[in-house]
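debug: dumping io for the single-chain case to check the tokenizer round-trip. Nothing else runs in this session.
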Amino acid sequence: MAMGRPSHSHGSGEERLPLRGGLETERPPPAAHHGGEQLLKDARRGGRLWRASVRAGLVLCLLTVPAVLLLLRWQADSSPQWVFDFEAPEEDDDQDMQDDVSDDLSPAPHIEYDRLLGGLLIEGFDEKSCRSRYQFARYHNSPSTPSPYLIERLRKQEVLQKKCGPGTKAYKEASKQLRSGQSLNTTDCNYLLLTIHAGLGNRMLEITSAFLYSLLTNRILLVDRYKEIGDLFCEPFPGTSWLVPSDFPLNYGEFTHSSPESYGNMLQSKAAGGNTDRSLAGTTPRYVYLHLDGNYGFHDKLFYCEDDQQFLQGVPWLIMRTDMYFVPSLFLIPAFQDELGRLFPEKDTVFHHLGRYLFHPTNNIWYSVTKYYRSYLAKAEKRVGIQIRIYETKGILQRNGPFQHILNQILSCAQNKKLLPEIGMAAGATAETQNKGGAAETQNNRTVAVLTTSLSSWYSDQIQKMYDEHQTVDGTTVKMYQPSHEEYQRSKNKKHNMKALAEIYLLSMNDELITSGFSTFGYAAQGLAGLKPWIMFRSENHLVPDPPCGRAMSIEPCFHQAPYYDCKAKRDTDLGKVVPYVRHCEDVSWGLKIVNQTQL
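debug: decoded output
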């Protein structure tokens, strides 16, 4: 509930004047000609008593207000809100099999888990204000350990963010010079401001890309405060904020592909000169807008060339707009390759490590994630996540079905890859009657919990109906769960995004993943989980692809709109064949992704 704005009214508006004692009261009347001196003494004595009572009241108020605030904070901490639309499930008296505590919101120091994620995180944050930061490890076993050098660089970045972040002297000075139009003095504080405009999956990928670029170029990362980032994620850096202040001097939301401040347009408009047409002439600009969105042009893409990076290194403020995971192209810039190799010896763990470092869902979201997990998923012997994204279109809205060929593709993938059990031919058949050899098969008590995320509930309902009506060949019980079905994407709706983030984290807590090709929602889940998913390929002409799905080469997301320009040779080339660890994506043939390979 939003708190009301405090009133600034001080009463009826009658003029009150301060006495020399410092507190205000009404002006005493002038002394009368009979007994005036005595009246004046009485007035002063009354004023002293009044002032004493005011002081006592102020002391009592000062003692009471902090207690009230602490009580309100305790009440807020103890009553997180459920983000899904159905009624929250009742608490289970049994303990959670995953973390062996009945109440995930209570401290559990006796539970052994890597709460600092191998050193990615540090101690010292307030746990109650952001419970997910140190609790995510309870529901997640990482297959990879961050390198000591990455941990070292993260600590240095935290120092830089705190030294130069919002509210600091360095930030105020840099902001002041940016506002005044003066040339900026050389400082240790250069900035990257990321504007946010895409859906939740894209947001997570673009923030991770921008943060890695900040690490490589020693910049302070600031993100757009107006896109509910603060409602979705806790602050990642200690002692400072990554949200750009509301009084930032540039109206960065109005920058577009055609803005003259964009780097591509600066190169095209003969603000470029010197020996090559890609080196800006004259003084270094105060800021440059980097348009790296899906509709960017050739000159915008020169951002990924080493010569252009050398120029941009000297620009104090970079304003970036992107909706993509451009990390693979950073691995192709020679000046960054050695540093990236030290940061990520396992090259395909960039999003896995940086995503877990940066993203910590706020308490309402985390409460919903853990409560849902404990209620429906925790006690299953196997957990399978199925992320369904439909790309059929009708008008301007994406249709979500029902499409029988999509259902057939999901089942074909899940059963062929042994993620879900096969069923008997006859409805209601038992495991014993299906044994053609005559010997009764042992009925097992194994349960597979399937978490489905989709804008439509039809697919989950149909799969559950099939398993309800047919016995599985091995007696396994299949239970389908789907937290929400929004029907269509509403990326500008805060509640929608909170549910979407909760579902991304729920997907990341599964043992196996099936994802839809081209979907950034699935990329984020697989990256947090550290799992290579089974990717369902896009169908054509309403036919199930053959094969219906394939194993991902790595846990990394795909860069959908990667450039194909060889900066050194100055010609187009196949950048998926330049180095062994950058390949074309399984689901987007023209895209690029990082793999952990050493040979072409």
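debug: round-trip ok. The longest helix spans residues 36-78.
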